[in-house]
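thought: fold this chain, then report.
action: predict
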Amino acid sequence: MNDFPKEEFTNRISRAQESLEKENIEAIIVTSPSNFRYFSGLNSNFWESPTRPWFLIISQKDPIRAIIPSIGSTALEKTIVKNIEVWQSPNPKDEGVSLLKKIIKSFPKNSNIGFELNNETHLRMSVQDFSDIRNELLDYNFVDAGKIIWTLRKIKSINEIHNISKICSIASKVFDSFPEKINSKMTEREITAIFKRELINEGADYILYMACASGQGGYDQIINNPTEKKINDGDILIIDTGSTINGYFCDFDRNFGFGEINKTSLDAYKKLWEAIEITLEIIKPGISCSDIYSSLSKNIISKENNDSNVGRMGHGLGLQLTEPPSIMSNDKTLIEKNMIITLEPSIQINKSKMLVLEENILITENGYKLLSTRTPEKLPIIN
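observation:
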């Protein structure tokens, strides 16, 4: 069971039902782990089992109900979901789909039935089963409901803000004290092992994402797991953590230099830091994601550094490591109070080296609040 009060979830469902009525969608069939948890409060690692889909049905007027594998009934009964149908699993021939069809048929013919079909959502059921539902139930229209869900999820509640703030504070504390715990005789794997222990000791629940890279004056990627590569003099190391409390993520990185770092890399680091500093000054409700992207990019890109290799310069944050919106030139989403986003600009030093800095921020009524401790203005050097 989630630690949030019951009212947190009843409010989410009520707002979803209002949106369904407004968009003329009879019901949403929720299947993805983060959305199932968002509406029900179920806190489980059972999602790691790739089979056995779970269905949560939110309709305009009926109480929320679920179709789940029998193994999950006791856990789900401890949430706000009380109308539960179960199927004996595993059963590859019918993974609860016949029960789902029966519920869909209970809605008026020609109804719009929503599934998670748009960008940054996914169906946690087989493609074959979904195709069978569409091909058999021809009297119903199957439409995307992802936009409704993300409209709700992008604005964080007080409880959500508390959890994200807490995990950001924990990760910041570990990052801030980390230079004194590592040295150039260690490998990437040894360094991140210390980092993980510190996070757990400080109160993190899980460390679901831990990227690490290092190299002379920069690194060539920011998504791989740590390796047995030993840190050398002149290396810059990046650690990017997605740790959680109560299911909610932080997502930011820090860079550390070892020994003597070349001037080109130090200047690039400074340019990234200054780009974030300038951009923070314009962030407030009403500004668009594309405006934020423009501010970051124009203060980074130059004749000497003419590329940003990340693809976007930030994103939403919450029950997932990355959520909408995206800090990109073509995302016109307006920033609103109580959204939590990341700023994640990168700079290409040469064809094979890059640097990335990242911050987590809460949008307030008139501006922003840093949830991560601000990146050091100068690259921390470990001798």
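thought: worth noting. DSSP finds ten helices and 18 strands in the chain.
final: tokens above.
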